[in-house]
Amino acid sequence: MKNHEIHTKNIEKISARYPTMIEYMKRKKEEDIIVEANKAKNGQIALVVNEKENKIHLHSRFDPNKDAKRWISSLTLSNDKIYIIYGFGMIYHIKELVKNIGNETKILIIEPSISIFNQIIENIDVTDIIDNKNILIMIEDNLDKLRYFLNTNVYWNNSHLVEYYTFSNYKKIFSDMEQKVNKMIYDHLYIQKIDRNTMIKFNRDWQKNLLENMSVAIKSNFISQLEGIFSDKPIIIVSAGPSLNKNVELLRDIKNKAVIICVDTALKVLLSKNINPDFIVTVDGGELNLAHFDNLEYDNIPLIYMPTSHPKILKKHKGVKIFADNIVGYTRELFKEFDKEVGFLKLGGSVACIAFNIAVKLGADPIIFIGQDLAYTNNKTHAEGTKYARKSDSIKTKYFEVENIYGDKVLTGHDLYTFLRWFENEILNDTSNRLYIDATEGGAKIEGTEIMTFRDAINKYCYKDIEVTRKIHEALDTDIKFNLDELKLLIKKLQNMYNNLEIIHKKSMDAIKICNKIINIYSENKNSDNIGPKLNRLDNIDKYIKQKQEEFNMINHLIKPIVYKVFLENTEANTSKDDISIMKRSLEFYTALSNSVEFTLPILKETITEIENTDN
Q: Is 259 left (phi over 0), alpha (psi -120 to 50) or beta?
């Protein structure tokens, strides 16, 4: 096949699969590097890059295929993994990888050089790679596709499966770009690790709060009622960073000229200045979060909360409460059976992330940040007047520097850096052309925001009365709360669930006994004739439990980390296929299931009683 025929075939496939890539290839100029397509000793095309008088061979001059097979033999491959390959020019390695993994395995290939990409498609048939729906190719240098791929494919429960490969020759030629790619992948995986660890650490607190808050949720308004009510109107997110003290006073002058969303950490500062925000947002379910509301009167401010928020905060608040569900999903799905649409907010690592998502839900444009330092400005952790305010050197964490809004350096920590990257990802992935303004007047630079003083932001965007109070009142005026008949049905449903969980608990206890007996038989090499009936009993228990999907949804917080640990985490221990290892994993699962149900039952019983006593 002639080279122009190869090129034509490749271009046709690229046009069908990646139409925007064709446009990019037309307008993108080739780099200063010169790429030659030579023939190796075995007749295959081997690329050579001439850069700064250096010749760098991408492929073996003798046998590129043999080199690729040698590379593959050094890897531990798995169909479950998610592969990110830096260097489309290493096409023989990529083809060998694809040949050795399953058809459903996801791969992202990043090529930083248009010159190398052009030589590949002109000389080597890559239609099989282009056609593969589970392989994504990016040649753009702004990393948007990498960010999209990570956000849509890599989560807390599969982040351990990501394998990133680059090659020494690519590191030599494109070191700056490769470092950016490496850093973006590392940052994303770090965020997912934080999410996973948070879920494992707080799973019992969240489960308890989820059930206790149900008796509040049935009497609450829903975030869905507020969707889009402030379309193209300014919304200010007030966070508790150390720079908040610089400009918080200005909020007093713009009541009803912008929507003010205050995170719980910053509430004391605002109320001490006689500033009432339009919404308070509370998310954290830990005991420490109660301190933000100590000795405060906040009944007159609508409180937006999550299923996992601390119940005492909600019960203390006697005013308008607005329920918003997140990835938990259980209460939202339960309420949907009663034709009640709660509304969904994406998760974020902090209460400020949730406030951000609320502003987006409400239709804001622009979104203005104040107190969003995401760094230890002037070596302080929080604004003066907040519960957490102290010097940064009292924090037992590793500091490092990031760029601040003035182009200098400012100290931050891993948690704040995680939130910074979260905000940047959300802003960069927003296709609405919404304007984001960082009016914090300090702290880390948030990529994608326009930096200005809060005074300038107010003068430019917050000068017109937009009737905030009236619009909120009208939006929440619809009667969507549970009536008496609906409450009776809800109680009945929860009672059935309680009964089913009791059965699951009994069956999981039976399964534990069976697993221990089978492990004992395997360990002591006893007569295995009795194993068959025991395995059948275990199989019947397993089938029963799998049928009870709704009950599993209720104990999701407790059981998800266990399922991850026992069945998903790709460690040497749980990839072992011998009978004892398999049975030990089953034992671990049933033990965790039994403990989870045992923990949930008394809380669920108390929830049912509370709803029964509700004065509707």
A: beta
Q: Which two tokens stand for residue 329?
A: 């999903």
Q: Can you read off the two tokens belonging to residue 495?
A: 């009672």
Q: For 159-182, what is each residue's pLDDT tens digit?
A: 888 999 999 899 888 888 899 899
| Cβ-based neighbour number of residue 513 at 10 Å | 13
Which of 205-209, 262-266, 472-476, 591-595 is predicted least confidently? 205-209
Name the residue among 329, 335, 333, 343 with its Cα closest to residue 229: 343
**Under 8 Å between Cβ of 314 and 213:** yes
Give per-residue pLDDT as tens, 301-340: 999 999 889 999 999 999 999 999 876 567 888 898 899 9
What is the value of pTM for the model shown? 0.76
d(CA 443, CA 402): 9
Tell which phi-psi region holds residue 320, choosing left (phi > 0), alpha (psi between -120 and 50) or beta. beta
Q: What's the distance, CA 176 to chain centroid?
A: 27
212, 607 contact by CB (below 8 A): yes
Taking CA atoms, 420 is separated from 209, 378, 413, in Å, by: 28, 18, 10
The pair phi, psi for residue 6, each rounded to 5°, is: -60, -45
Tokens 């059935």 -> residue: 496
Neighbouring-strand partners of residue 282 = 305
Q: Which of 301, 341, 335, 339 is nearest to 317 (CA)?
A: 301
Q: Indicate the average pLDDT of the chain.
A: 86
Task: Give the C-alpha separation, 301 to 606, whole Å.
Answer: 29
Please list, in sequence order, all residues whose beta carbon lies within 8 angstroms of the beta carbon of residue 173, skipping any fewer than 6 positions away: 33, 49, 51, 56, 113
Please, which residues have CB within 8 angstroms of residue 576's CB and are 6 or more apart in sequence?
A: 582
DSSP-assigned letter for residue 451? E
φ, ψ (nearest 5 deg) of residue 255: -60, 130
Q: Is the pLDDT of residue 403 over 70?
A: yes
Q: Dig out the tokens for 333 from the structure.
A: 């799905």
> Which ranges in 156-266 belong to alpha helices (H)?
168-173, 175-212, 214-217, 244-247
Closest CA to 593 of 560, 550, 549: 560
